[in-house]
Design brief:
Pfam families: SHOCT. By secondary structure, this protein is an all-alpha fold. The chain is 55% helix and 0% strand. Helix 3 runs antiparallel to helix 4 (72-83).
Length: 84
């Protein structure tokens, strides 16, 4: 059972598979989730939204007034607070 057994029996594939698995693990650890198919502008802090997707406070206030959730007096007071 010399080196010929190692080469001809297919045992050489296990070190190659081990190296590939180690490289894959290192990639997954150090890429910090970019492998999961997310775009490059992925926000890692999920508490904040992108600027293009978030609404301003005035937009939200207008929607609440249109949906009759707040009265006209409340709307005017809150609008004044937001603008100032």
């Amino acid at each position: 059972m010399g080196s010929q057994f190692f080469v001809w029996s297919g045992m050489w594939i296990f070190p190659v598979i081990g190296i590939i698995v180690m490289l894959f693990v290192f990639y997954m650890v150090f890429s910090r989730g970019r492998f999961s198919g997310c775009s490059s502008s992925y926000d890692y802090n999920r508490n904040f939204k992108d600027d293009k997707n978030s609404e301003s406070a005035l937009d939200i206030l207008n929607k609440r007034y249109v949906n009759s959730e707040i009265s006209k007096e409340d709307f005017e007071r809150m609008k004044k607070d937001i603008i100032s």
